[in-house]
Amino acid sequence: MNFFDKQELKALGVIFGILLIISVPNFALSIKRARDLTRKNDIRDLA
């Protein structure tokens, strides 16, 4: 009982690949911004 044929699975793979390519750099950038904000708040609290 196959739900998808090979062509549909390939299309899904391409779509998920594109989503990963777009989302991973954005996620890394948001982590960097959160760390920078934490550093700024820590420095402000020390001053």
Automatic annotation (TrEMBL):
The chain crosses the membrane at residues 12-31. It comes from the Bacteria. Keywords: Membrane, Transmembrane, Transmembrane helix. This is Uncharacterized protein.
